[in-house]
Amino acid sequence: MKTLLLCDRESVRYDGLDLCAQTQTTVQKAGGQTQTIILNCQEIKPCRGCFHCWLKTPGLCVMTDDCANTVSRQEIQADAVILLSKITYGGYSGDVKAFLDRSIPNISPFFELVKGTMRHRRRYDRFPYLISIGYDARTPKEQQTFLTLAERNALNMRPPQYFAFTMQSSGEVEATMQALEDILRREVWRP
Questions:
Q1: Would the pTM count as exceeding 0.90?
Q2: Residues 6+ apart with CB under 8 A from 70
């Protein structure tokens, strides 16, 4: 199974740990192949909100001088996507948010009713499993905000399943990695 691991820059040096490398090792231990990309918001141009990716070049951003289109294609081709992000005021870090803003070409501009809620129509027949891991939450409220945001993003992308984890400190890394491995083996890599 192909997993795309999208990490923010801070994850490689969080409290003396390399969370990005630990997550990659966990995925491989669970039996998956990993492609890891460390996102950098300074290298990803902000979305212009022009919606050309929906109307003029469906599925592709018209800005082609950064990595957003390449990473968006890799996202759709993966079996699972893991977002590893420092929790910033309950949201994703700037690095992860910059990519998510530019990944809207992967959804359709049209809407449909799904389980009583208006959602974007799928652009592609399938979207990979989505796993969000937030670290360095300052408060339980910040953790809850992150979990709610991860759920709402998943509703638009409509993966077969999504999972979200949060950590308040580096002391929770081992338990989180074990939970990730269990989810990958039990839910994502099911025979």
A1: yes
A2: none
